[in-house]
Every structure is written in structure tokens, then in C-alpha cells.
Amino acid sequence: MAIEHDLGQETTSLNSDEQAPLDFFNAVYARYKTAETASEGPVERFYNLGGHKIRLCFAGQALIPYLTPALGHLEIEPIVNPELTVCLWDSESTQTVMPPPPWSKDCYHPKRGEIIGYNTDRIHTSFQWGSYALSVLDRDRNLGIYWVSTAKQIPYWETGSPLRTIFNVWLSQREVQLVHAGAVGLPEGGVLLTGKGGSGKSTSALACLNSNLFYASDDYCLISPTPTPTVFSLYNTGKKNADDVERLPFLTSAIRNRDRLATEKALYFIHQAFPEKILTTFPIKAILIPRIVGSKDTRLQATSSTTALTALAPSTMIQLPGTGKEACQMMKKVADRVPCYELQLGSEIEQIPQVIFQLISQ
Predict the structure, then answer these.
(1) For 238-259, what is the mean pLDDT?
(2) Mean pLDDT in residue range 294-303
(3) What is the CA radius of gyration of the chain?
(4) pLDDT above 70: percentage of residues in the chain
């Protein structure tokens, strides 16, 4: 099921500011097709992301072990007309070099990686520091491209949450927002866990795997405010500080990077270790903001939607290229429509899922 996108007759009525980003996209796509041919055709995978059917087309096998396990719980059978196609390639295995960037080093956004001058209403272009990955998206053609020089430079955190930029930019047009948050619950409803790093968000989410609750996320998930606030699982992974893994002993055997814990967080693929505990979507019944308080017991303290939005929006917008006013509005709609609480975390971890279960079972 090879993909074909006509690159001709796309530039007739564009001004010069719009032309350069599109020209660069077309040049990168042409190189992808060369890489695809060198790899004897694409290797395809299909997924359901927040109710939208997408296709990943890999030029060869090199990137598949790095970029597909986190999405394994969302894989579907091949379909003829996916809503979004993302083409993925690396230069090393395909022997196909990337076109030289037409921008200067001053054009890189210092934190989020957007390329200044190469983002328009149609084209999104960003470079991800750390993995040195280029992501480009043509919104009009629902076509994305992801490139790295070599699979060996993909860091563990990218393996745990791949393709965030392309997914975020494309889904946000469809009133589905990628957010920096965890999510756990039951089929009839659950909670969104939000807060800055070190607040106990991952511990709270992962602790629920050892309870009656189900797991959707510990770090990134999708939310939509309509028709009612809803969460969608995106990645089935979990991460934990290496010096803290003994607090969740039931997860010890699921650590995938045990030999690299001196320099990396522990990475878990929950779908592989606990497939029965994954829940891909549920209504959002509340937003919880974890906070470590140092006492024995875990408690809930009601708080405002403004406080919840303050915990959710800044980290989401800092981490994800392409987020802006519309993203903040979607997060605000969700926060305004559900009760919000501070989840005051005690030292007995088994109490965390008990308190959450009691809340959503009311």
C-alpha cells in the first residue's frame, strides 16, 4: 500500500513567506521517497489515536524497534484511507542523506525546537534537541515526515513517547490535545494527573497498576473537551527515577533498560508487561494535582480549576512544539468542567489508588 502525494502544482498562489517552508517540505519528502526505494518499499503500521486512524510508513526496518512499541496498544488492521500518514526514515540504514537545512543556526527555537521562518498555517517544521530528529507536517495533505541521521541516536525518552510533535500539531486541529499528564481510572471514568516533574505524578499513575484501576498514561496523553471531557491513551509506557524504582517492586521485572539506569530513568512498556491493565479511553471525572506532603496518609483537598490549569498548561506548552492559544483553551475547557483536587501523597503508596478509586466510584 505505497503512498503517493503529488508534489507538483502545489505552489501556484503562495507568497514568498509561504513558499520556502513548502519547498523544504517537498525536498524532504522527495528524499524520503528515495530512501523508501532504497529500502525496497515501505513497512507500514496503522494506529487509532484518539479516534483518528493514522498510518506510519517506514523506509526499512531500522526505526521500527525504537518508535512502535510505545504505540503497540493502539495498533489496528491496515486501512485504505488513513486520516494522517507519517513517513519515517534514517540516513544511515537507507544511505540517503537529508537535504541541507536552508535556515541559519539562529532560527532554532531554544526550547521547543520550532524553526523560525519555516512555520506557517500549512507547514510545521521543528527540530528536536536530544534526539536530533526533524519533524515536518503538511496540514493540507495530512502528511508528516520524521527523520533522524541514525537510529542509534534516538534516546530512551523518545522511544517511550515517539512522534509527539507531529501528533500534537495534527490532532490539535481536531479538538484533541496532547498534554503532559498521567491518566488512570475505570471504564466509566477516571482522573487526569498533572503537575511538574518530581511532584509524584508518575508514582501515582504507576501505583495504580497494582490495584483495581486501569492505566492510560503516566506522562503524556490526549484529552478532548467535547462532547464531554475525555482522555485517550497515547503511549503505553511509564518512566520512573532509577533511584526510586524499589518503591514499586511489582514493576521490577518490567524495566526495559535495566543496564542503563546509571544514566537513564527506568522505562516500562506497560502493554507488554500488563496488557490487561491498559485502558485506551474514559471520561474524565476529576483532575488531580499530586503533591508530596510527607505524612503517612494520602488525602484529597479541593482546589480551583485555575490551579489545575496552572499545573497542566505550562509544562505542556513548554515541552510540545506547536502548542499555543488554542491548546490552552482546550485545557481550560476540560479544567472548568470537572472538579479539581490536590492529591496530597502520603508515604504508604498503596493508599494512592485507594483514594483515587474511592473518588471516581462515588
Answers:
(1) 91
(2) 94
(3) 21
(4) 95
- Nearest to residue 272, comparing CAs of 148, 121, 159, 134? 159
The one-letter amino acid code at 27 reads A
Q: Beta 299-303 vs 340-345: how paired, if at all?
A: antiparallel
Other CB atoms within a 10 A radius of the CB of residue 36 amount to 22
Rounded to a whole number, what is the distance in angstroms from the first to the last CA of the chain? 49
- Domain ranges in the chain are 16-172, 177-361
pTM for the predicted model, two decimal places? 0.92
What is 177-361's CATH number, 1.20.1410.10, 3.40.50.970, 3.30.70.3290, 3.40.50.300? 3.40.50.300
Residue by residue, what is the 3-state secondary structure of the chain? CCCCCCCCCCCCCCCHHHHHHHHHHHHHHHHHHHHHHHCCCEEEEEEEECCEEEEEEEECCCCHHHHCHHHHHHEECCCCCCCEEEEEEEHHHHCCCCCCCCCCHHHECCCCCEECCCCCCCEEEEEECCCCEEEEEECCCCEEEEEECCHHHCCHHHHHCCCHHHHHHHHHCCCCEEEECEEEEECCEEEEECCCCCCCHHHHHHHHHHCCCEEEECCEEEEECCCCCEEEECCCEEEECHHHHHHCHHHHHHECCHHHCCCCCEEEEHHHHCHHHECCEEEEEEEEEEEECCCCCCEEEEECHHHHHHHHHHHHHHHCCCCCHHHHHHHHHHHHHCCEEEEEECCCCCHHHHHHHHHHHC
Identify the residue whose cell numbers are 502520603.
346
Burial of 184 (0-12, 13-18, 19+ CB in 10 A): buried
Q: What is the largest CA-CA distance in the chain?
A: 67
Given a contact cutoff of 8 angstroms between Cβ atoms, the answer to whether 87 and 144 are in contact is: yes
Q: Which amino acid is at 67?
A: L
